[in-house]
Amino acid sequence: MVETSVTSPNDIDNAMVLGYGHPIRPLKLADLIGLDVQLMAAAHLHEALGSETFRPPALLERMVAEGKLGQKSGEGFYTWQGNKTADENGR
């Protein structure tokens, strides 16, 4: 949904927490873990299971190739300033 500009990472995260009861925002969690780590895990699942269902999203591959790794690079699905997103820091 982010890749096709249907909605923002923030809207997806809010829907998952408020609508599905997730204890943490999933795209924010991906940023915290590292998008490069997420990509490696997805690539491994795709290879190990041999299913297109687990192919890493093109958006994730593109973001990692661009150096957008999440919190550790300062940009991922969110823009980071230290251990908080720019929104959490009042920007």
Q: Determine Rg (CA atoms, Å).
A: 14 Å
Biggest sheet: strands side by side, in what order? 1-2
Major beta-sheet overview: 2 strands, antiparallel
Low-confidence stretches: none
Q: Assign the CATH topology.
A: N-(1-d-carboxylethyl)-l-norvaline Dehydrogenase, domain 2
Estimated structural class? mainly alpha
Given this structure, which CATH class is correct?
A: Mainly Alpha
CATH architecture: Orthogonal Bundle
Total number of helices: 4
How many beta-strand segments? 2
Helix content: 40-55%
Beta-strand residue fraction: under 5%
Order of helices and strands: HHHHEE
Quaternary structure classification: single chain
State the CATH superfamily name: N-(1-d-carboxylethyl)-l-norvaline Dehydrogenase, domain 2
Give your account of this protein's structure.
- With 91 residues, this protein is mainly alpha-helical.
- The chain has a single domain, classed as N-(1-d-carboxylethyl)-l-norvaline Dehydrogenase, domain 2 (Orthogonal Bundle), CATH 1.10.1040.10.
- Helix content is 47%, strand content 4%.
- It contains four helices and two strands, in the order ααααββ.
- It has helices at 9-20, 26-33, 35-49, 58-65, and strands at 80-81, 84-85.
- The protein has a two-stranded antiparallel ribbon with strand order 1-2.
- Strand 1 and strand 2 (84-85) form a beta hairpin.
- The two termini are 24 Å apart.
- The model has no long low-confidence stretch (mean pLDDT 94).
